[in-house]
Request: fold
Amino acid sequence: VVGAQRLVGVAVDRTAAEVCSFIAEHALTGSGIGIADAHIALAALESRCSLWTLETALLRVARRLRLPPFA
Reply:
């Protein structure tokens, strides 16, 4: 498990205030994602993980944040 965490990375828990700051900083208000998706986008951005989703709005945000494409 520890080896897998090093390979994948570990997301840091963020408070609602930190996620709201992330939303404001990246102008995500009105982007069509909710607070849960914003948490996911922030975690992926901080850990530089690919984000695999079928949600169009979250996919647009992932591209806007230049997250690595899912391979």
